[in-house]
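User: Please fill in residues for this 111-position structure.
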């Protein structure tokens, strides 16, 4: 199953975006799907994950502002990003263990 992230864009600080991670097949058997991000000149970092029973976890830097969810009927995982800050600017990737890294989707937050 391949994952493709989309939904990024340019937004002003304080704005919102909803990122989508669409799977090429069923996500029902995938135990955990993660969102990561990589800012220019920085290492890739964990953002959030969701399990196949709906448990979630977030990085401290996005807790209370981002929300991860999954729609198994649409084979899609979402990342709702609210109250965006310039430091959220990065390429966002979705991934599960053993899958290759995709191209990601660019999020740019202007101050």
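Assistant: Residues filled in for all 111 positions:
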């Amino acid at each position: 199953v391949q994952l493709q992230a989309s939904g990024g864009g340019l937004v002003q600080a304080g704005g919102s975006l909803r990122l989508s991670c669409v799977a090429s097949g069923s996500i029902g058997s995938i135990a955990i799907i993660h969102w990561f991000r990589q800012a220019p000149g920085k290492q890739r970092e964990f953002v959030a994950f969701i399990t196949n029973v709906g448990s979630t976890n977030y990085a401290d830097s996005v807790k209370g502002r981002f929300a991860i969810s999954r729609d198994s009927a649409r084979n899609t995982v979402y990342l709702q990003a609210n109250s965006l800050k310039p430091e959220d600017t990065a390429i966002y990737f979705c991934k599960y263990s053993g899958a290759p890294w995709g191209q990601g989707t660019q999020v740019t937050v202007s101050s």
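For context: DSSP finds no helices and ten strands in the chain.
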